[in-house]
Amino acid sequence: MTRTPIVAANWKMNLTLDESRRFINDLVPQLIRFDNVERVICPTFIALPFVADRLEDTPLKVGAQNVHWETSGAFTSQIAPPMLQGLAEYVIIGHSEVRQYLNETDEIINRKVKAALAHGLKPILAVGESDALNQAGSTHEFVSGQLRAALQGVSGEQMQQIVIAYEPIWAIGTGRNATGEFANEIVKNTVRGTITELYGETIAQTIRIQYGGSVKSSNMEEYMQYPDIDGALVGGASLKVDEFVRLVEITDQIKG
Ligand code: PEP
């Protein structure tokens, strides 16, 4: 089964509108050439319309960093799925920073996944364990539980629209990245294993699973050499044009 690798840039709460404009204008010409890799840029909501416009006639895709589950209504500050239609193809759901700082529960994440799918948006569903759970040897159980909760009521057909990002919390923005061996173990046995249990082997083999957590050009190769790791969700290193281009280049060289 060949899966198109996918590398996504999560800008988080970085770059003003002007900075986003300059950054994307620098990035696009350099990213254009790696057609074997799906490249997704997830800017802030404020930069989303500009980035979407800039990327419209390019092979690069746009992602949002979150979405609400309701279609409209009294939810001050939130963005509804229909508002993203035509702007974003992907949406990150369940990022650990959102789970932690905005108190998003598994139930909320499940609602968001279903709402995104219902509006034709493709979730990049993030899962991952804390340092304490990792130290306790509970990674498999915890991550599998997060997946089962987030995917409740999601059909096999819908599942094929979802990308999973395995992101151990202790590795996000810390510079303390997981070893390739550990990341592969969780991606393959826990994430793909759980999807196999839920949806069967055929569907599980089509699902793209990224690793995320302090990915940079010096460690990207280590992850991409594993056939089950289909790309990366990248925070810090996506804010440097050369670094991000290099990550895509490495993915293209190894998996393209
Ligand atoms: C992320 O934001 O999803 C992430 C993995 O961040 P970083 O690459 O900075 O660890």
Describe the structure.
An eight-stranded parallel β-barrel has the order 1-2-3-4-5-6-7-8, surrounded by five helices. The protein contains twelve helices and eight strands. It has one domain: TIM Barrel. The radius of gyration is 17 Å and the shape is globular. With about 260 residues, it is of the alpha/beta class. The longest helix is centred in the C-terminal third of the chain and has 20 residues, at about 180-200. α3 (about 80-85) links the parallel β3 and β4. The protein has helices at about 15-30, 50-55, 80-85, 95-100, 105-120, 130-135, 140-150, 155-160, 180-200, 200-205, 220-225, 240-255; strands at about 5-10, 40, 60-65, 90-95, 120-125, 165, 210, 230-235. The protein binds phosphoenolpyruvate (PEP).
Instruction: Output the number of helix runs.
Output: 12
- Fold-level CATH name: TIM Barrel
Provide the CATH architecture: Alpha-Beta Barrel
Element order: H for helix, E for strand = EHEHEHEHHEHHHEHHEHEH
Rg over alpha carbons: 17 Å
CATH superfamily: Aldolase class I
- The proportion of strand residues reads 5-15%
Shape: globular
Uncertain ranges = none
Please report the distance between the alpha carbons of the first and last residues.
14 Å
Oligomer class: single chain
The order of strands across the largest sheet is 1-2-3-4-5-6-7-8
**Helical residue percent?**
40-55%
What's the average pLDDT?
A: 97
- Provide the CATH top-level class: Alpha Beta
Instruction: Return the domain count.
Output: 1
Number of strands: 8
